[in-house]
Amino acid sequence: MIDYVRGRVVHLDTEFVVVDVHDIGYQIFTPNPYAFAKNDDIITIYTHHHVREDAALLFGFANRDEQAMFRKLLDVSGIGPRVALGILAGGKPETIAAAIQQENLTFLTKLPGIGKKTAQRMVLDLKDKLDAIPGGFSFAAAGIMLEDPGSGAAEAEGGQIWREAREALMTLGYTAAELDRAWQSMKGTDIPNESVDALMKRALQQLFKG
């Protein structure tokens, strides 16, 4: 089992990063590649090594909480690595834990790839197991009262693509207010039917400008 990889990010894609470790490039699929923005610093990515008949894949995370939640999600029937990765792209571990503990199916079904039956299985399979995670999510989740993700006016105005971009950026630590201001600045520019990745890049440009 490869528990973590430490090295420099040499390539950034919409689904993965490539980390150079002693002249070997490891392709690591991650919920938010932009969290590991390419720079010259040595970084640590906590990983899950997934082996199947036709491939050996690495999934990577910015911290131990994401890694632990990913592994818990894999215990749910019907959730594979790609779906689990999408869930973490849609919400922070403590927020997902809060939704499970509160049996908030409305919130869970807003996560990528999650229908009502899968959300119900998440609650059934994980509600009583999250406390078993060392340093688990129960304390952080206890004070979180969830709203329906995507209730902001700017988000609704921007449509589904902006909503997905906005949710991904919020998992990187940006606040709703910051992203709404970025959207207001972007509205004055020509925005064709862009991808989530393209809108994220535009928003980041606005955020970097301050």
Query: What class would the helix/strand composition place it in?
Result: alpha+beta
CATH fold label of the largest domain: DNA polymerase, domain 1
Strand content: 15-25%
The portion of residues assigned to helices is 40-55%
- Form type: globular
Uncertain residue ranges: 148-156
CATH superfamily of the largest domain: 5' to 3' exonuclease, C-terminal subdomain
Q: Helix tally?
A: 9
- Main sheet specs: 5 strands, mixed, barrel
CATH architecture of the largest domain: Orthogonal Bundle
Radius of gyration: 17 Å
Read across the widest sheet, the strand sequence of neighbours is 1-2-3-5-4
- In the CATH hierarchy, what is the class of the largest domain? Mainly Alpha
Helix-strand topology string: EEEEEHHHHHHHHH
Q: Please tell me the overall pLDDT.
A: 80
Total E-strand runs: 5
Straight-line N-to-C gap: 42 Å
Structural domains: how many: 3
GO molecular function: ATP binding; four-way junction DNA binding; four-way junction helicase activity; hydrolase activity
Subcellular location: Cytoplasm
Main location: cytoplasm
Region (Domain III): 154-210
Could you list some keywords that capture this structure?
9 helices, five-stranded mixed barrel, OB fold (Dihydrolipoamide Acetyltransferase, E2P), 210 residues, 3 domains, DNA polymerase, domain 1
